[in-house]
Amino acid sequence: MDAPERRAAVALLFDQLAPGYDRGGVPWFGPIGARLVELTAPRPGGRALDVGAGRGAATFPLVDAVGPTGHVTAVDLSPAMAMHLRSEAELRGASLDVVVGEATPDTVPAGTLDALTASLVLFFDPEPAETLTTWVSLLRPGGRIGLSTFGPTDPAWTAAEAVLMAYAPQQLLDARTSGRVGPFATTDSMASLLESCGATDVDSHDEPLEVTLPDAEAWRAWTMTLGLRQLWAAVPDGELPRAMTGIATALERNRGDDDQLHLTQQVRYTTGTRP
Prior knowledge:
This protein is of the alpha/beta class. Helices cover 39% and strands 23% of the residues. The chain has ten helices and seven strands. It has helices at 3-17, 29-40, 59-66, 79-92, 128-138, 155-165, 187-196, 216-223, 229-233, 240-251; strands at 47-51, 71-76, 97-100, 113-119, 139-153, 200-213, 261-273. It is globular and about 55 Å long. The two termini are 35 Å apart. Keywords: Transferase. Residues 49-143 form the Methyltransferase domain. InterPro entries: Methyltransf_25, SAM-dependent_MTases_sf.
């Protein structure tokens, strides 16, 4: 699959996910997006871009951060995601531009942004270094860039995902494959990637995010609202009971004294500045 084909596949995947995306009742993309904006530290009155905006997890914190004198553009490959984001912006009374496509100088002139965020996005790109270099070029000198990617999950969560990964098709467009290898594998490799693309004052670190759920069925219902939905779709109907048994056994290790499952994902935040 070449780069244009992969980008088209990403757009199609998120078109399919858009209606229920992150609507599982579990705080997930929202806390990650808000923390990313906090670490990127946009200033009131600034011009900001949110790449791969989805349903607005980082977009709306950006709008709040730059305030009424600032300006936010949100860009996403998925027309369906963009449609839902526009609707949400109208409901909130938030002023922003929503663009279907990629973050390039055709979307935003180079050297004009004060801040750029990309939350859980870059690992879907077939050419992450080239794309990241372009993103850095969109910033003015002193502009800030913030990326979030995935670090490790706790052993129980990892084992549950491994049950699903056994059914995964080749070239899966998911962070469980591309998002935890290569330049995305460690904080050091993420820092080196951003530095190689022209940023300075780079910091990359992991922060834990805990998800609390009652049981494996709730984990399935929640993950069906995320990119993991495509993994569930790959499980043959006849294999689903066996898969659920394996997942329940894995997750049960993390049942707490409150009778809830406590699952921890390390979220990797990488920030830098255009010199």
